[in-house]
Amino acid sequence: MLAVAVIGLATASAAQDRPVRVLYLSQSVGFVHETVRRPPDGLAPSETAILQMARDSGAFTVELSQDAREITADRLDDLDVLVFSTTGALPIDQETWSAVIAWIESGRGGFVGIHSAADTALAFDGGEAAYVDLVGGKFDGHPWTEGTPIRLTNLEPDHPLAAMWPDGTDYAEEIYQYAGFDPDRVRVLQTLDMSAGSLRRPYPVPVTWVRQVGQGRLFYTNLGHTPSTWSDPRFRAQIVEAVRWTGRRTEAETEPNRAVQDQAALAAFAASQTPQMTVGTDVEAADDIRALQRIHPDQGPEEAARMTEAVGRIQARMR
Predict the structure, then answer these.
(1) What's the rounded Cα separation, in Å, for the pair 68 and 91?
(2) Which of 74, 205, 243, 274 could make an SS bond with 192 (beta carbons 3.0 to 4.6 A apart)?
(3) Mean pLDDT over all residues of the chain?
(4) Are 20 and 14 within 8 A, CB to CB?
(5) For 262-317, what is the HEC assignment?
(6) Cβ contacts of residue 300 below 8 Å, gap of 6+?
C-alpha cells in the first residue's frame, strides 16, 4: 500500500509540473464572430491568439477544433481543460456531456468559457438547460453592442483571475446580460460600472465569474467579442491564469460572494438614476434590482412602461 501511495504522489507531482493540456473549441452553430472565423488558408484570430498565449506563457499546450464531435470520453483522458468560444446548439450528445460533467466534477478537468460560450447550448433534449447549469448564465441580449464604451468594476482586485484589470478600466466591448444567473452559485469578479458609459441600466451586469463544480473549476468571462480584445495583454493574461487555475496549477477563492454582489446591485441601481442616488443599505432590494434585467425596455413601449413602473417601486423603497 505504501508503494501505491508513493506512486500516486509521484504521478500527481508530475502532472503539476507539465503544462496544462487544453482543447480550444471555437465552433459556431449560430452567429459566427470574427474572432472565430477562419480564412480559407489559415486560422481564426482567436486561434492564433491562444496559440501565442500558450507559446509565450509556457503554461499550457493547446489543440484547436471547430467540431464539438471531437470531444469524446476517451479524448478527455488526454486533456486538462476545455476552452469554449462557441455559439448555438453544439453537436454533443447527452452521453458525452455526462462524461464531460463527470470529468469536471472529479477534478480531472476544468472549463473556461469566453464571451459567446454563454450563447451556446447542446443538441439533445434538455441540452440547453444542462449547459446553462454548468456555465451559470444564458445570453439574454446585448444592449451594449460592439464598441460600446463601458467601464469595468473589479469586485475582487486581489483575486488572481481579476488582478490584471484595474478597477475602473474604461473599455469598449459587446456585453451580454444573462438569464438563469444565480448569485448564490458563483463568485463574481468583474461587473459593469453603471455610473459610466453611454448606456446605463438599473441592474447589475456580471462580466466575469468563477465557480466550483464538484472538485473541478469553471471560469467565464463575457470579454472576447472583438479581435482587438484577444490582442489585449490584460485579456491574454486573464485567460492564461484561467487555464492555469482551472487546470489546478494555482489556487483562488471560489466561494460565492453574495454580499459583494448585493452591494454591486444597489450601486448599479443608484448610479443609473438621474440625479444619482446615494447607495442604499437595503440588501433585500438587491433581488428586486436583479429582476429588472428580465425587462427589456428597448423592445417596445409596453416593456419600457414596465421598467419605469418597476424602477419607481424600487426608488420609493430606497428613499
Answers:
(1) 6
(2) 205
(3) 93
(4) no
(5) HHHHHHHHHHHCCCCCCCCCCHHHHHHHHHHHHCCHHHCHHHHHHHHHHHHHHHHH
(6) none
Say whether pTM exceeds 0.90: yes
CA distance 52 to 37: 17
- The whole-number average pLDDT for the span 14-26 is 88
> Residue 252: is its pLDDT beyond 50?
yes
Integer Cα distance of 206 and 91 in angstroms = 28
pLDDT band at 279 (very low <50, low <70, confident <90, very high): confident
How far apart are the C-alpha atoms of 191 and 185, rounded to whole Å? 16
- All 3 cell numbers of residue 317? 423603497
